[in-house]
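Consider the following assembly input.
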Amino acid sequence: MQVGVGYNQENNSTLAGRLAAEQAVKQSGEPAITFLFSTENYNQKLVFQAVKKVIGKSKLIGACTSGIITNAGVLEKGVGICTISGSEIQAVTCLQENIALSPWKSGEEAGKKLRMSGIDSGTVFVFPDGFAANLSELLRGIYNVLGPDFIYIGGGAGHNLKSFQTHQFTDQGIKSNALAIALVKGINFQIGIGHGWQPAGQPMVITKAEGKKVYEINGRPAFEVYSECLGGFDKINFPSYGMKHPFAIPCVGGNFLIRDPLKIEEDDSITFVTEVPQSTVVTLTEGTFDNLITAAGEVAKTAVNTVKLPKILFLFDCVSRYLLMGKEFKRELKAVMEVIGPDIPVMGMLTFGEVGTFSGIPYFHNKSIVVAAGW
Amino acid sequence: MSVNLNTFELFILYDIASFSFPEREEELMSEIIEKSTRLFGVRRLALFTGEGDGRKCLGRWGFQKESDIWRAVEERVDNSFLYHLEKGKLGLLYLEQASPLSERDRRLYTIFARRIEEILRVKRLEREQRELEKEKSREQRLLLDSIPIQVWYLKDAETYGAANKAHAEFLGKKKEELENKSLFEVAGTKEEAMAYIEGNRRVFEEKQQIQTEELVCDGRGEKRLLSIVRTPGFDSNGNVEYVICSAQDITEQKQAEEALRENEERFRNIYSQSPIGIELYDAGGQLIDANQACLDIFGVSDIEEMKGFKLFDDPNIPDEAKKKLLEGESVRYEAEFDFDIVKKMALYKTIKSGTCFLNCLITPLKTNEGARYGFMVQVQDITERKQVEEQIRYLSFHDKLTGLYNRAYFEEELKRLDTKRQLPLSIILGDVNGLKLVNDTFGHHEGDMLLRRIARILKDSCRKEDIVARWGGDEFAILLPRTPKNAVIEVCNRIKEACKEAKKDPIQLSIALGAATKEEPGQDIQEILREAEDRMYRHKLFRSKSVRSSIISSLTKTLQEKTHETEEHARHVQELALQLGRKLELSDNQLDELALLAALHDIGKIAIPNSILMKQDMLTEDEWEIIKKHTEIGFRIAQSSPELAHIADAILSHHERWDGTGYPRGLKGEEIPLNSRIIAIVDAYDVMTRGRIYKRAISRQEALEELNRCAGSQFDPKLVKLFTDLVSEVNSPLRERFFSFENVKSFV
């Protein structure tokens, strides 16, 4: 297996794409699978076309992002390419459209298409539109078809919150409101996932919720309870509180899934980045930068604790952590890089929700970091 | 990033306890998958509900196909958990994780499974309840759809909830077409919809049941009358949440009620306005009601005054009739009703007194089963009818003109009295003299008066038990039971005396009588009748001439008295006529005729009213016509007597004129009988020379000049020449032959 990583920050979309691809292909040779991450300030179509010209028949998967993560740090503008070649590698991709309509079914259909390839084990890369509805359902639909014999890694395609459209790529094309999914066999991956947020306060029950919107907590308006738990604040101050005090939902193994509150609605309901199921127990969380950074380091350690030396490291870090920590985000990357060392090429992106497994089951995470080391 | 396991277990338990009770199975399965995967890291799961052959897979996750589940269940690896929900009756839960189950895992899975079990149990109860309600609802719907009454409910004033079959069919729609529909969509027109909505709004506002009768268009566009009951249903705050409506089509019922009411009114009108009095009594004979006609008959002002009156207390009902009524028979009778008895017995207050005749029909009223429930009395006052009957009876046996019995009655009585006990039975027949003459002369009215006077005389001359009858025309018959011959003769004499003494108006009363008597039972009464008739005719014949002459003399005398014409004038006319006749060398017979004509040529004036005859002013045209009739009347009088018949024509023509402009026939020249021409001249001459009350006399010369002047126009010119010559001679023998009216009498 050969890995190539390339990135470019040319203004010209076509140029950026071509140069990044060429750089990667130069290292890997003709790839079996190509990963494409492009910041949203490029013409995605031109980037896509340019990359495709370079990678030839390689399977491709990718998404737009608000930032590309490389060994050098986060590129808020750029095209990042990772190409992997090897005769033992089998890959199949699927670009499933209109996933918002029926996420579970869309997931199942995507899973069926992947299964048709005959590949019965491997790693599933999942890059859905991060703003599409109920990505947890989407994942469960995929899993319902593919089952526990696969590892699931990925992240929601997003942007810098200034535009309303994201893009997902496979070798079949470029779409929005879609799921770009690839099944890759022949590469081993070890995953680490974590966040660093600490539960704080009493457990509460989401008594009324629908999709990403929570209406009531403990039978009372959501914002009213949230504000009360945090000592009371006005709606206008919500963004700073929401960034720092996400919700935690208990998950297997004593873990918590984080749910990031996004905005307050007129009716005092709270819209989250990802779905919060009704009748779920939640707690508020708190976290210092140090907690977050320490957690990132632990995740990296878990990922690189492999049998063999990893040849590639995929890093999917939540854009909210980047926005929250600001300049301090460098420390998080540093924590990760210090663990993995300088020799392992890194390719990743700032994501809008992360896909990773606990106990082999894929979950959609918020405000988390997923590190996948492949060999 | 993790917490203490005990604390975390609390989170799990809390999360398990927070299981919702979603309506749909898909949502429940989705929640089971979400919680089990999240809390336990379940990598595969399956949930079956039901048992035995009814078991079905509610949902699975992580399995490719159902058979994989059963294989896993059978293999039961140590990382799987199998739970029999409600000991398998409710279903089966299979959970599988990546690592082998610990005790804690089993404990938590058990809690999880029991929570699911509880949910499924509740859902089963809910389902059974729903099934029950559905069945109940279906039964209710079937029941509602089977009844003919329309039922529907409204969500608000303008919107249907649902309706039963009857209501949908009434509107010509299917039930589904009404469910949750606006009334504006269902009604034919906006106005119809608004009318419905108005009624609905009232219930929502007034919050109480309202019943109305409304004209509604059905599916065929026909207006039907519905009786609609709207009943509100309330929510927990006491507001009207819905309205249940029921309706019955009462169009035919209303029409029938209206028809019945009209019928009742019609019958009531017939009852109240019937000219026949109607009384209604109950089974015991107590008066219930009576119509106005009945009250009028009995002279009662108000029905209240008759209240309490009992049918069987009425003394005017014959006992026999009462008996029949009680036996259930109808009775009809006519009887004299005495108001005085009613007053005496104080049966009820009546303003009438005396008696009247009533026709009564009393009918027992019975049900279809034959039980008597009352009586109906129909009563008519037939007093007038009785009087008319009496009158008819009277007229059928009496002569209207004279008031005597008629021939039919006489003959009946003749048969009846022709018995031994009534012997000797006498018969008198009479024939009035001069009736034709009076009828012809004075008219039939005078003739009728004559008969009435004769009838009076006959009645007054007989006994009460005698049957005096007008036999026919101018003939009368008298039947005298137990009357011998001599008594009969006395009766005849009485009658004649009475006639003689009666006033001559216009003529002397005269009747020819003939009598006969049956003395032996063996005698044939018809023979006796014929005998009387023969005697009457013989008498008449014997006396006819003298009677006739007597009548005519009487008429002539009356005429003289009436017109003041003197015997002297009559004699002069006669003399002048005879002189002229001799001059004409007439025969003796002709001269006799001429003399008679001279005496009787104006006899017809007897029938002319005095007021015209003696009028001094100019006559009107009508009066002149009446005067001119005297020639015809005179003609008829002369014709009625054989002795005068030969001068009848001359009497008729004595006012003809030579030039044909006379009357009555307009005869001309010698068409006029000679005697008439002679009388015309001599009568005119004598009148001119003698004068009248209204005109002075002129000299002989002047009279002759007048005659000559009119010769050829009024008078025969030859006869005028002869008469002029005759009168001009000195010492003409005017007294040669003198006919006095006494002579006329003997002549006739």
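The two ends of chain B are 181 Å apart (CA to CA). Ask yourself how this observation constrains the way the partners meet.
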